[in-house]
Amino acid sequence: MDSATILLVLALVVGLYVAWNIGANDVSNAMGTSVGSGAISLRQAILIAAIMEFCGAFFFGSHVSDTVQRGIVNPDIFADTPMLLVYGMISALIAAGVWLQLATYFGLPVSTTHTIVGAIVGFGAVVGGTDAVYWDKVGHIILSWVISPLSGGILGFTVFTILRRKVFYSSDPVGAARKLVPALAFVIVTIFVMVMTIKGSKNIKGDFSLWQASFVSLAAALTATSIITVLVRRIHAATLPRWRKSFIDDKTLAALDKARKHLRRAEVSSHGDLSFKVALALEEVESISHDAKHAADVSAGSSEFRAVEKMFVYLQIITACFMAFAHGANDVANAIGPLSASVAVLQTGIVSVKSTVPPWILAIGGGGIIIGLATWGWRVIETIGRKITALTPSRGFSADFSAATTVVVASSLGLPISTTHTLVGALLGVGLARGIGAINLSTIRDIVSTWLLTLPAGAAIAVGVFYALRAIFG
Fold first, then answer.
1. Averaged pLDDT score across all residues of the chain
2. Do both 375 and 263 map to the same domain?
3. What range defines the domain where residue 422 resides?
4. Contact in structure between 389 and 439 (CB atoms under 8 Å)
5. What predicted TM-score, i.e. pTM, was given to this entire model?
6. Which of 114, 276, 361, 369 has the fewest CB atoms in 10 Å of its CB?
Protein backbone atom coordinates (compact mmCIF):
# COMPACT_ATOMS: atom_id res chain seq x y z
CA MET A 1 0.00 0.00 0.00
CA ASP A 2 1.53 3.31 -1.12
CA SER A 3 1.69 6.42 1.04
CA ALA A 4 -1.13 8.18 -0.85
CA THR A 5 -3.54 5.33 -0.08
CA ILE A 6 -2.48 5.27 3.55
CA LEU A 7 -3.02 9.02 3.83
CA LEU A 8 -6.44 8.71 2.16
CA VAL A 9 -7.54 6.05 4.63
CA LEU A 10 -6.11 8.11 7.51
CA ALA A 11 -7.97 11.21 6.31
CA LEU A 12 -11.26 9.30 6.15
CA VAL A 13 -10.80 7.77 9.61
CA VAL A 14 -9.86 11.12 11.12
CA GLY A 15 -12.76 12.80 9.31
CA LEU A 16 -15.18 10.34 10.91
CA TYR A 17 -13.49 10.94 14.27
CA VAL A 18 -14.02 14.70 13.95
CA ALA A 19 -17.65 14.20 12.88
CA TRP A 20 -18.17 12.05 15.98
CA ASN A 21 -16.82 14.82 18.18
CA ILE A 22 -18.92 17.42 16.37
CA GLY A 23 -21.99 15.39 17.25
CA ALA A 24 -20.88 15.07 20.86
CA ASN A 25 -20.19 18.79 21.28
CA ASP A 26 -21.68 21.07 18.61
CA VAL A 27 -24.94 19.21 18.03
CA SER A 28 -25.48 18.92 21.76
CA ASN A 29 -25.62 22.71 21.88
CA ALA A 30 -28.69 22.74 19.63
CA MET A 31 -30.51 20.04 21.60
CA GLY A 32 -29.25 20.83 25.11
CA THR A 33 -31.84 23.49 25.91
CA SER A 34 -34.72 21.23 24.84
CA VAL A 35 -33.52 18.37 27.03
CA GLY A 36 -32.63 20.64 29.95
CA SER A 37 -36.06 22.29 29.95
CA GLY A 38 -37.84 18.95 29.90
CA ALA A 39 -39.45 19.63 26.50
CA ILE A 40 -38.05 16.37 25.13
CA SER A 41 -36.08 13.43 26.49
CA LEU A 42 -32.48 12.64 25.59
CA ARG A 43 -33.64 9.73 23.43
CA GLN A 44 -36.06 11.98 21.56
CA ALA A 45 -33.32 14.61 21.12
CA ILE A 46 -31.05 12.00 19.55
CA LEU A 47 -33.81 10.89 17.17
CA ILE A 48 -34.67 14.47 16.13
CA ALA A 49 -31.03 15.44 15.69
CA ALA A 50 -30.30 12.25 13.75
CA ILE A 51 -32.96 13.08 11.17
CA MET A 52 -32.52 16.86 10.97
CA GLU A 53 -28.70 16.96 11.12
CA PHE A 54 -28.24 14.21 8.53
CA CYS A 55 -30.77 15.76 6.14
CA GLY A 56 -29.20 19.17 6.57
CA ALA A 57 -25.68 17.86 5.99
CA PHE A 58 -26.46 15.49 3.13
CA PHE A 59 -29.12 17.34 1.14
CA PHE A 60 -28.47 21.00 1.93
CA GLY A 61 -24.83 20.98 3.01
CA SER A 62 -22.28 23.13 1.25
CA HIS A 63 -21.13 21.14 -1.77
CA VAL A 64 -18.30 23.53 -2.56
CA SER A 65 -15.58 24.21 -0.03
CA ASP A 66 -12.53 26.45 -0.14
CA THR A 67 -9.53 24.16 0.09
CA VAL A 68 -7.74 26.53 2.44
CA GLN A 69 -10.78 27.16 4.64
CA ARG A 70 -12.09 30.41 3.26
CA GLY A 71 -8.87 32.33 2.87
CA ILE A 72 -7.22 31.73 6.23
CA VAL A 73 -3.85 31.02 4.63
CA ASN A 74 -2.40 31.94 1.24
CA PRO A 75 -2.97 28.95 -1.13
CA ASP A 76 0.17 29.82 -3.14
CA ILE A 77 2.39 28.34 -0.41
CA PHE A 78 1.12 24.85 -1.33
CA ALA A 79 1.35 25.19 -5.12
CA ASP A 80 4.73 23.44 -5.47
CA THR A 81 4.28 21.03 -2.58
CA PRO A 82 0.60 19.94 -2.55
CA MET A 83 1.29 17.09 -0.12
CA LEU A 84 2.04 19.68 2.56
CA LEU A 85 -1.62 20.72 2.28
CA VAL A 86 -2.64 17.11 2.86
CA TYR A 87 -0.46 16.85 5.96
CA GLY A 88 -1.79 20.18 7.18
CA MET A 89 -5.47 19.39 6.66
CA ILE A 90 -5.17 16.00 8.33
CA SER A 91 -3.36 17.75 11.18
CA ALA A 92 -6.23 20.24 11.41
CA LEU A 93 -8.74 17.40 11.59
CA ILE A 94 -6.79 15.62 14.31
CA ALA A 95 -6.36 18.86 16.27
CA ALA A 96 -10.08 19.61 16.02
CA GLY A 97 -11.00 16.08 17.08
CA VAL A 98 -8.64 16.03 20.06
CA TRP A 99 -9.66 19.47 21.34
CA LEU A 100 -13.38 18.77 20.88
CA GLN A 101 -13.06 15.45 22.67
CA LEU A 102 -11.19 17.04 25.55
CA ALA A 103 -13.79 19.81 25.85
CA THR A 104 -16.65 17.32 25.62
CA TYR A 105 -15.12 15.19 28.38
CA PHE A 106 -15.43 18.16 30.72
CA GLY A 107 -18.85 19.06 29.31
CA LEU A 108 -17.69 22.39 27.84
CA PRO A 109 -19.25 23.70 24.59
CA VAL A 110 -16.64 25.00 22.11
CA SER A 111 -16.61 26.08 18.47
CA THR A 112 -15.52 23.47 15.92
CA THR A 113 -14.87 26.15 13.30
CA HIS A 114 -12.65 28.13 15.66
CA THR A 115 -10.65 25.00 16.47
CA ILE A 116 -10.05 24.24 12.80
CA VAL A 117 -9.18 27.87 12.08
CA GLY A 118 -6.57 27.77 14.83
CA ALA A 119 -5.18 24.52 13.46
CA ILE A 120 -4.89 25.89 9.90
CA VAL A 121 -3.22 29.06 11.19
CA GLY A 122 -0.71 26.85 13.01
CA PHE A 123 0.44 24.68 10.12
CA GLY A 124 0.03 27.56 7.62
CA ALA A 125 2.50 29.64 9.63
CA VAL A 126 4.90 26.69 9.78
CA VAL A 127 4.81 26.16 5.99
CA GLY A 128 4.70 29.74 4.72
CA GLY A 129 5.64 31.87 7.70
CA THR A 130 3.44 34.33 9.54
CA ASP A 131 3.04 36.44 6.38
CA ALA A 132 1.14 33.57 4.73
CA VAL A 133 -1.67 33.83 7.30
CA TYR A 134 -4.55 36.19 6.59
CA TRP A 135 -4.61 37.78 10.04
CA ASP A 136 -7.64 39.91 9.25
CA LYS A 137 -9.66 36.68 9.04
CA VAL A 138 -8.25 35.57 12.37
CA GLY A 139 -9.15 38.97 13.76
CA HIS A 140 -12.76 38.45 12.66
CA ILE A 141 -12.81 35.14 14.51
CA ILE A 142 -11.53 36.80 17.67
CA LEU A 143 -14.09 39.57 17.21
CA SER A 144 -16.84 36.95 17.15
CA TRP A 145 -15.93 36.02 20.73
CA VAL A 146 -17.48 39.36 21.67
CA ILE A 147 -20.15 39.79 18.99
CA SER A 148 -21.66 36.30 19.28
CA PRO A 149 -22.45 36.06 23.01
CA LEU A 150 -23.26 39.77 23.29
CA SER A 151 -25.77 39.69 20.43
CA GLY A 152 -27.35 36.46 21.61
CA GLY A 153 -27.45 37.71 25.20
CA ILE A 154 -29.17 40.99 24.37
CA LEU A 155 -31.81 39.30 22.23
CA GLY A 156 -32.31 36.47 24.75
CA PHE A 157 -32.84 38.98 27.56
CA THR A 158 -35.29 40.99 25.41
CA VAL A 159 -37.32 38.02 24.17
CA PHE A 160 -37.75 36.42 27.59
CA THR A 161 -38.56 39.77 29.24
CA ILE A 162 -41.32 40.36 26.66
CA LEU A 163 -42.69 36.85 27.23
CA ARG A 164 -42.81 37.38 30.97
CA ARG A 165 -44.71 40.66 30.64
CA LYS A 166 -47.07 39.60 27.84
CA VAL A 167 -47.82 36.09 29.10
CA PHE A 168 -46.73 35.28 32.64
CA TYR A 169 -47.61 38.64 34.19
CA SER A 170 -50.98 38.93 32.41
CA SER A 171 -54.28 38.35 34.19
CA ASP A 172 -54.89 35.33 31.94
CA PRO A 173 -51.53 33.63 31.19
CA VAL A 174 -53.04 30.61 29.43
CA GLY A 175 -55.24 32.76 27.20
CA ALA A 176 -52.30 35.03 26.35
CA ALA A 177 -50.13 32.05 25.48
CA ARG A 178 -52.93 30.56 23.38
CA LYS A 179 -52.88 33.68 21.18
CA LEU A 180 -49.13 34.23 21.12
CA VAL A 181 -47.77 30.71 20.56
CA PRO A 182 -49.44 30.10 17.13
CA ALA A 183 -48.40 33.59 15.98
CA LEU A 184 -44.80 32.93 16.98
CA ALA A 185 -44.91 29.53 15.25
CA PHE A 186 -46.07 31.18 12.03
CA VAL A 187 -43.28 33.77 12.10
CA ILE A 188 -40.57 31.24 13.00
CA VAL A 189 -41.51 28.64 10.39
CA THR A 190 -41.95 31.28 7.67
CA ILE A 191 -38.54 32.85 8.23
CA PHE A 192 -36.53 29.67 8.64
CA VAL A 193 -38.14 27.73 5.80
CA MET A 194 -37.60 30.69 3.47
CA VAL A 195 -33.93 30.97 4.48
CA MET A 196 -33.37 27.23 4.05
CA THR A 197 -35.25 27.15 0.73
CA ILE A 198 -33.29 30.02 -0.79
CA LYS A 199 -29.88 28.92 0.53
CA GLY A 200 -30.41 25.19 0.27
CA SER A 201 -31.80 25.19 -3.26
CA LYS A 202 -28.38 26.29 -4.53
CA ASN A 203 -27.01 22.90 -3.56
CA ILE A 204 -29.63 20.69 -5.22
CA LYS A 205 -31.51 21.59 -8.42
CA GLY A 206 -30.96 25.27 -8.87
CA ASP A 207 -32.10 28.45 -7.25
CA PHE A 208 -35.64 29.03 -6.05
CA SER A 209 -37.15 32.36 -7.00
CA LEU A 210 -38.33 34.63 -4.23
CA TRP A 211 -42.01 33.91 -4.88
CA GLN A 212 -41.40 30.15 -4.96
CA ALA A 213 -39.54 30.34 -1.65
CA SER A 214 -42.33 32.52 -0.22
CA PHE A 215 -44.97 30.02 -1.32
CA VAL A 216 -43.14 27.07 0.23
CA SER A 217 -42.45 28.91 3.49
CA LEU A 218 -46.03 30.20 3.82
CA ALA A 219 -47.46 26.75 3.12
CA ALA A 220 -45.19 25.20 5.75
CA ALA A 221 -45.98 28.00 8.22
CA LEU A 222 -49.75 27.70 7.77
CA THR A 223 -49.58 23.93 8.22
CA ALA A 224 -47.47 24.16 11.36
CA THR A 225 -49.59 26.99 12.77
CA SER A 226 -52.82 25.07 12.20
CA ILE A 227 -51.48 22.03 14.02
CA ILE A 228 -50.13 24.06 16.94
CA THR A 229 -53.37 26.05 17.20
CA VAL A 230 -55.32 22.82 17.67
CA LEU A 231 -52.83 21.58 20.28
CA VAL A 232 -52.80 24.78 22.35
CA ARG A 233 -56.61 24.96 22.27
CA ARG A 234 -56.75 21.49 23.76
CA ILE A 235 -54.35 22.52 26.50
CA HIS A 236 -56.38 25.67 27.12
CA ALA A 237 -59.62 23.72 27.35
CA ALA A 238 -58.10 21.24 29.79
CA THR A 239 -56.63 23.89 32.08
CA LEU A 240 -57.99 23.65 35.62
CA PRO A 241 -58.86 25.40 37.84
CA ARG A 242 -60.70 28.10 35.86
CA TRP A 243 -59.98 30.90 38.27
CA ARG A 244 -57.34 33.48 37.46
CA LYS A 245 -54.67 34.89 39.72
CA SER A 246 -53.91 38.57 39.73
CA PHE A 247 -50.23 39.34 39.40
CA ILE A 248 -48.18 42.31 40.47
CA ASP A 249 -46.90 44.32 37.53
CA ASP A 250 -43.62 46.24 37.28
CA LYS A 251 -45.27 49.62 37.97
CA THR A 252 -46.61 48.40 41.32
CA LEU A 253 -43.22 47.05 42.33
CA ALA A 254 -41.56 50.33 41.33
CA ALA A 255 -44.09 52.31 43.35
CA LEU A 256 -43.45 50.16 46.42
CA ASP A 257 -39.70 50.68 46.02
CA LYS A 258 -40.21 54.46 45.89
CA ALA A 259 -42.37 54.30 49.01
CA ARG A 260 -39.62 52.44 50.84
CA LYS A 261 -37.02 55.05 49.81
CA HIS A 262 -39.22 57.96 50.95
CA LEU A 263 -39.98 56.28 54.28
CA ARG A 264 -36.27 55.68 54.89
CA ARG A 265 -35.59 59.38 54.33
CA ALA A 266 -38.47 60.31 56.64
CA GLU A 267 -37.14 57.97 59.32
CA VAL A 268 -33.71 59.62 59.19
CA SER A 269 -35.10 63.19 59.32
CA SER A 270 -37.83 62.61 61.95
CA HIS A 271 -37.46 62.42 65.72
CA GLY A 272 -39.16 60.93 68.75
CA ASP A 273 -42.58 59.35 68.43
CA LEU A 274 -42.86 60.32 64.77
CA SER A 275 -39.64 58.47 63.97
CA PHE A 276 -40.99 55.37 65.70
CA LYS A 277 -44.25 55.48 63.70
CA VAL A 278 -42.34 55.98 60.44
CA ALA A 279 -40.15 52.98 61.30
CA LEU A 280 -43.25 50.84 61.82
CA ALA A 281 -44.68 52.04 58.50
CA LEU A 282 -41.37 51.28 56.77
CA GLU A 283 -41.33 47.79 58.21
CA GLU A 284 -44.87 47.20 56.95
CA VAL A 285 -44.11 48.53 53.45
CA GLU A 286 -40.95 46.38 53.24
CA SER A 287 -43.01 43.34 54.18
CA ILE A 288 -45.60 44.19 51.52
CA SER A 289 -42.86 44.78 48.94
CA HIS A 290 -41.24 41.45 49.75
CA ASP A 291 -44.56 39.62 49.39
CA ALA A 292 -45.30 41.44 46.13
CA LYS A 293 -41.97 40.47 44.60
CA HIS A 294 -42.47 36.90 45.70
CA ALA A 295 -45.92 36.88 44.07
CA ALA A 296 -44.51 38.43 40.91
CA ASP A 297 -41.80 35.80 40.58
CA VAL A 298 -43.14 33.45 37.98
CA SER A 299 -43.43 29.88 39.17
CA ALA A 300 -44.17 26.89 36.98
CA GLY A 301 -45.76 25.10 39.90
CA SER A 302 -49.36 26.23 39.37
CA SER A 303 -51.63 24.46 36.91
CA GLU A 304 -51.88 27.58 34.76
CA PHE A 305 -48.16 27.97 34.35
CA ARG A 306 -47.71 24.28 33.69
CA ALA A 307 -50.21 24.71 30.84
CA VAL A 308 -48.34 27.73 29.49
CA GLU A 309 -45.02 25.90 29.60
CA LYS A 310 -46.63 22.94 27.85
CA MET A 311 -47.63 25.23 25.00
CA PHE A 312 -44.08 26.51 24.66
CA VAL A 313 -42.84 22.93 24.34
CA TYR A 314 -44.08 22.94 20.73
CA LEU A 315 -42.22 26.14 19.91
CA GLN A 316 -39.03 24.88 21.47
CA ILE A 317 -39.17 21.64 19.50
CA ILE A 318 -39.63 23.64 16.28
CA THR A 319 -36.65 25.91 17.01
CA ALA A 320 -34.50 22.93 18.04
CA CYS A 321 -35.32 21.19 14.75
CA PHE A 322 -34.38 24.24 12.72
CA MET A 323 -31.16 24.75 14.67
CA ALA A 324 -30.17 21.12 14.12
CA PHE A 325 -31.04 21.30 10.42
CA ALA A 326 -29.15 24.57 9.96
CA HIS A 327 -26.14 23.14 11.80
CA GLY A 328 -26.09 20.13 9.52
CA ALA A 329 -26.41 22.31 6.42
CA ASN A 330 -23.69 24.78 7.37
CA ASP A 331 -21.28 23.90 10.16
CA VAL A 332 -20.86 20.21 9.34
CA ALA A 333 -19.94 20.86 5.71
CA ASN A 334 -17.44 23.50 6.81
CA ALA A 335 -15.91 21.18 9.38
CA ILE A 336 -15.30 18.44 6.81
CA GLY A 337 -13.73 20.95 4.41
CA PRO A 338 -10.19 19.81 5.37
CA LEU A 339 -11.17 16.22 4.57
CA SER A 340 -12.49 17.26 1.16
CA ALA A 341 -9.31 19.26 0.47
CA SER A 342 -7.12 16.29 1.40
CA VAL A 343 -9.09 13.87 -0.77
CA ALA A 344 -8.98 16.28 -3.73
CA VAL A 345 -5.19 16.63 -3.57
CA LEU A 346 -4.63 12.88 -3.13
CA GLN A 347 -6.85 12.14 -6.13
CA THR A 348 -5.61 14.87 -8.49
CA GLY A 349 -2.17 15.74 -7.17
CA ILE A 350 -2.81 19.48 -7.45
CA VAL A 351 -4.13 22.25 -5.21
CA SER A 352 -7.26 23.91 -6.60
CA VAL A 353 -8.89 27.08 -5.35
CA LYS A 354 -12.22 25.27 -5.02
CA SER A 355 -12.96 21.58 -4.54
CA THR A 356 -16.26 19.76 -4.73
CA VAL A 357 -17.37 17.96 -1.59
CA PRO A 358 -18.53 14.48 -2.69
CA PRO A 359 -21.89 13.27 -1.30
CA TRP A 360 -20.24 10.30 0.43
CA ILE A 361 -18.08 12.71 2.46
CA LEU A 362 -21.22 14.60 3.49
CA ALA A 363 -22.69 11.22 4.47
CA ILE A 364 -19.66 10.55 6.66
CA GLY A 365 -20.19 13.90 8.36
CA GLY A 366 -23.92 13.30 8.82
CA GLY A 367 -23.45 9.77 10.15
CA GLY A 368 -20.57 10.66 12.44
CA ILE A 369 -22.43 13.45 14.21
CA ILE A 370 -25.36 11.13 14.96
CA ILE A 371 -23.05 8.57 16.58
CA GLY A 372 -21.28 11.31 18.55
CA LEU A 373 -24.52 12.76 19.91
CA ALA A 374 -25.84 9.33 20.86
CA THR A 375 -22.67 8.22 22.68
CA TRP A 376 -21.18 11.30 24.33
CA GLY A 377 -23.59 14.14 23.70
CA TRP A 378 -25.10 13.93 27.18
CA ARG A 379 -22.00 15.59 28.66
CA VAL A 380 -22.45 18.92 26.88
CA ILE A 381 -26.25 18.64 27.03
CA GLU A 382 -25.90 18.52 30.82
CA THR A 383 -23.94 21.79 30.78
CA ILE A 384 -26.15 23.63 28.30
CA GLY A 385 -29.42 22.37 29.73
CA ARG A 386 -28.78 22.48 33.47
CA LYS A 387 -25.50 24.07 34.56
CA ILE A 388 -25.76 27.61 33.12
CA THR A 389 -29.26 28.53 34.28
CA ALA A 390 -32.43 26.65 35.21
CA LEU A 391 -34.56 26.14 32.10
CA THR A 392 -38.25 25.72 31.34
CA PRO A 393 -39.71 25.37 27.82
CA SER A 394 -40.42 29.13 27.63
CA ARG A 395 -36.87 29.97 28.70
CA GLY A 396 -35.39 27.36 26.39
CA PHE A 397 -37.45 28.65 23.49
CA SER A 398 -36.31 32.21 24.19
CA ALA A 399 -32.66 31.10 24.10
CA ASP A 400 -33.03 28.93 20.97
CA PHE A 401 -35.05 31.53 19.08
CA SER A 402 -32.63 34.31 20.01
CA ALA A 403 -29.57 32.28 19.03
CA ALA A 404 -31.05 31.14 15.71
CA THR A 405 -32.26 34.64 14.83
CA THR A 406 -28.89 36.19 15.71
CA VAL A 407 -27.02 33.67 13.54
CA VAL A 408 -29.35 34.21 10.55
CA VAL A 409 -29.20 38.02 10.77
CA ALA A 410 -25.43 38.13 11.38
CA SER A 411 -24.74 35.76 8.51
CA SER A 412 -26.87 37.89 6.18
CA LEU A 413 -24.94 41.01 7.22
CA GLY A 414 -21.59 39.24 6.86
CA LEU A 415 -20.72 39.61 10.55
CA PRO A 416 -18.47 37.01 12.20
CA ILE A 417 -20.59 34.79 14.42
CA SER A 418 -20.33 31.50 16.30
CA THR A 419 -23.42 29.35 16.87
CA THR A 420 -21.98 27.90 20.08
CA HIS A 421 -21.01 31.26 21.52
CA THR A 422 -24.33 32.82 20.48
CA LEU A 423 -26.38 30.12 22.20
CA VAL A 424 -24.39 30.42 25.43
CA GLY A 425 -24.85 34.19 25.28
CA ALA A 426 -28.61 33.74 24.74
CA LEU A 427 -28.80 31.47 27.78
CA LEU A 428 -26.96 34.13 29.78
CA GLY A 429 -29.45 36.75 28.62
CA VAL A 430 -32.41 34.61 29.60
CA GLY A 431 -30.83 33.97 33.01
CA LEU A 432 -30.05 37.66 33.56
CA ALA A 433 -33.70 38.51 32.89
CA ARG A 434 -34.39 36.69 36.16
CA GLY A 435 -31.43 38.24 38.01
CA ILE A 436 -27.71 37.55 38.31
CA GLY A 437 -28.44 34.91 40.94
CA ALA A 438 -30.11 32.75 38.30
CA ILE A 439 -26.74 32.19 36.54
CA ASN A 440 -24.03 29.72 37.48
CA LEU A 441 -21.01 32.03 37.19
CA SER A 442 -18.45 29.26 37.77
CA THR A 443 -19.75 27.37 34.73
CA ILE A 444 -19.59 30.55 32.61
CA ARG A 445 -16.00 31.13 33.78
CA ASP A 446 -14.98 27.62 32.68
CA ILE A 447 -16.70 27.98 29.29
CA VAL A 448 -15.14 31.38 28.49
CA SER A 449 -11.70 30.14 29.54
CA THR A 450 -12.05 27.24 27.11
CA TRP A 451 -13.08 29.61 24.32
CA LEU A 452 -9.95 31.69 24.83
CA LEU A 453 -7.80 28.57 24.63
CA THR A 454 -9.47 27.15 21.50
CA LEU A 455 -7.45 28.96 18.80
CA PRO A 456 -3.98 28.53 20.39
CA ALA A 457 -4.76 24.93 21.42
CA GLY A 458 -5.86 24.04 17.88
CA ALA A 459 -2.72 25.64 16.46
CA ALA A 460 -0.36 23.92 18.90
CA ILE A 461 -1.84 20.45 18.38
CA ALA A 462 -1.90 20.87 14.59
CA VAL A 463 1.74 21.98 14.44
CA GLY A 464 2.87 18.95 16.44
CA VAL A 465 0.87 16.52 14.28
CA PHE A 466 1.99 18.28 11.09
CA TYR A 467 5.66 17.77 11.93
CA ALA A 468 4.98 14.13 12.79
CA LEU A 469 3.16 13.43 9.50
CA ARG A 470 5.84 15.20 7.45
CA ALA A 471 8.51 13.17 9.18
CA ILE A 472 6.68 9.89 8.56
CA PHE A 473 5.49 10.42 4.97
CA GLY A 474 7.83 13.16 3.76
1. 82
2. no
3. 3-245+302-473
4. yes
5. 0.79
6. 276
